[in-house]
Amino acid sequence: MSHDPLPIEQLRTAIADRLERSRRRTLALTSCDDRELMAQHSPLMSPLVWDLAHVGSQEEIWLVRDVGHRVPLRCDLDELYDAFQHPRAERPALPLLGPDEARKYIAEVRDKALDVLEKSPLEGSALIDQGFAFAMIVQHEQQHAETMLATHQLRKGEPVLFPEPLPAGVVGTRRGLPSEVLVPGGEYAMGTSIEPWALDNERPSHTVDVRPFWIDTVPVTNADFTRFLDAGGYDDPRWWSAEGWAYRQKAGLEAPLFWTREGDDWFRRRFGAVEPVPQDEPVQHVCWHEADAYARWAGRRLPTEAEWEKAARFDPATGRSRRYPWGDDDPTPVRANLGGGALRPAPAGSYPEGASALGVRQLIGDVWEWTSSDFQPYPGFRAFPYREYSEVFFGTDYKVLRGGSWAADQVACRGTFRNWDYPIRRQIFAGFRTARDATTAEVA
């Protein structure tokens, strides 16, 4: 979605297309048998059937009631599917809608939401200008699709999801690429005030000054991380923060989640299939503490959120901040690994057409990237349209992730998009890249 306003009818069509795409994905991820949908595959995650009805409940509240001012369908579901009311571990005990009833409910909600879309002027208030409320619901459903993929990864049993091939010509190698890229110091515009579908925590645009630094050209790979493992990185407290070392001991961390060792070789379980760990892929399923420990071991550090965004968006030729690393145009299959079809990251060095102006690759898609920054509001932040989307999470409990994973959809992933999670989270599709300060001699 461009930040340039679309004609209203063209905008209406674009929103309807995105609503349909998100729903196809939701239904595909919940097409397994009822036992799989009702089961809780991990206390970290909801039963898939909860996510299924939850996306419909949010759509009813925001589009049918708030935007459309229509008669509610199921007020009795509001509290049941309120994520703040019921922790994930407790949701299986709730009187949830069964799979058939949930599908019927979300279909009824969608019919009414599309009628609201057809009649909405899509202008006149902050909630509907440029279709914001509809875009918020699309992004919400796509975020839950990524969450459901994490649930599928945690489930035991035979595979029920199967990968699609990456487009021809996008798979590359980091051979011949520099190991790191120099990002010049100075000011740049971080965040956005003009992206119509940006969420409140991405706003407003504000000037940030960063010192020159080096950042990895590609994310840290499985091969890189294996060297940390082989060097005893998990057993050496020198590389861990005090909090990280305490958690590493408490949780018994020995390798990325889903990795197992057989002799001298590492294997991973991926959506029910066991396979050798592909050495050229970006490492994923590591928590912030593991990423931080690796960076210390490598003599480097995690980039700050401001550094990450400058590496991704800053164009030294014009001095402006782009929407995406490659420019202002929306993602395409040759620019980034998004949408969930591949079921894995692409090899490091892939997607040359998605490189930033500075030459940094795979900043969008493949893996969410941990930064060193806590999740905090930008100067001038204003909660919209509700405090619970961002404001209640601000503080030191959460670390910021940037860039989006292979499981993220393009509508919920952009150069300014901010994700956040606890530093102990491993089930998410997160990896990282490292950075270091530039010396005076290197900058001269």
Walkthrough of the structure:
The model has no long low-confidence stretch (mean pLDDT 96). The chain has ten helices and 14 strands. It has 444 residues and is an alpha+beta fold. It has two domains: 8-154, dinb family like domain (Four Helix Bundle (Hemerythrin (Met), subunit A), Up-down Bundle), CATH 1.20.120; 163-444, paralog of FGE (formylglycine-generating enzyme), CATH 3.90.1580. It is globular. The strands form five sheets. A four-stranded mixed beta sheet has the order 12-11-10-13. Strands 1-4-14 form a three-stranded antiparallel beta sheet, with helices on one face. A three-stranded antiparallel beta sheet has the order 5-6-7, with no helix packed on it.
List the helices and strands and how they pair.
Blueprint: H1 8-29, H2 34-38, H3 48-67, H4 99-119, H5 132-154, E1 180-183, E2 186-190, E3 206-210, E4 213-216, H6 222-230, H7 242-251, E5 259-262, E6 265-270, E7 273-276, H8 288-297, H9 305-313, E8 314-315, E9 320-321, E10 368-374, E11 399-402, E12 419-421, E13 430-431, E14 435-437, H10 440-443
Parallel strand pairs: 10-13
Antiparallel strand pairs: 1-4, 2-3, 4-14, 5-6, 6-7, 8-9, 10-11, 11-12
Give the second-level CATH assignment, the architecture of the largest domain.
Answer: Alpha-Beta Complex
Instruction: Give the strand tally.
Output: 14
Q: Tell me, rounded to a whole number, the average pLDDT.
A: 96
Q: Can you tell me the number of structural domains?
A: 2
Query: For this structure, what is the CATH homologous superfamily of the largest domain?
Result: paralog of FGE (formylglycine-generating enzyme)
What is the CATH T-level topology of the largest domain? paralog of FGE (formylglycine-generating enzyme)
What distance lies between the first and last C-alpha atoms, to the nearest angstrom? 40 Å
Taking pLDDT < 50 over at least 5 consecutive residues as the criterion, the unreliable ranges are none
**Gross morphology:** globular
Give the helices and strands as they follow along the chain.
HHHHHEEEEHHEEEHHEEEEEEEH
Helix content: 25-40%
Instruction: Report the CATH C-level class of the largest domain.
Output: Alpha Beta
Counting DSSP H or I runs of 4 or more residues, the number of helices is 10
